[in-house]
Write a structure and sequence with these properties.
By secondary structure, the protein is α/β, with parallel strands linked by helices. It contains eight helices and 17 strands.
Length: 250
Amino acid sequence: MSYQVVLVEDEKHQQEAMLEMLGAYPDFQIVGVASSIDEGKNLIESAKPDLALLDVMISSGTSFDLLQMLDHIPFEIIFTTSYDHFAVQAFRLSAIDYLLKPIDKDELAGALEKFRARKLATDNAANIRNLLSNLQLSPSDTKTKIALPTLTGFLYVAIKDIVRCESDNTYTTFHTVNKNKIMVSKTLKEVEVMLGDYRFFRIHNSHLINLDFVSEYLKGEGGVVLMADGSHIDVSRRRKDEFLLLLKHR
């Protein structure tokens, strides 16, 4: 099976580098290259690609501006970017693929393989909408949502509604304020990275908690926290001092 690909990138040397790397994948056919927002919009609407590789920062604006101009997004997207921690965090929260420049061949290969395995345009469009919504908010805004993969697609959960996350080997269960339990195929370490800019702290190898939902701390060797959902969670002795410091300044 072959896939039609468009590239939106305003730097000539980056265009050439990406085209050269993509040349190693004959099932990915480049059907057009654009150097501006308007060119990108016209190219996408005419070519109707399966996959778009979009540079975040373009001289005439951003690829987010381009996406806002489209009525539909029936294609997958891989963003490329040189910087902007907030944007990278937004990609993670919205389950959107991105590549950091200079682009590594192995990372590109991994992103293309994920595309082959996934190919879910409907979910991708919803993820893009979540990304664009999150990008309009400040990093601490309570409306920010995280995309949680399920067997049928994604659930979009407000970060402020997550009480705690509990590890089960390669899976993590999200516990929310309305008592929902959402199990996802991600390690707790991956979740910790995704929620790194928010008020979460890993108090134990198996538990990541939202500091805003700590009801009580009970002293002990490491201690125990009582969460707003009624759960009692042990605090790792080596994490105790850092946790208590954060608790004082919450």
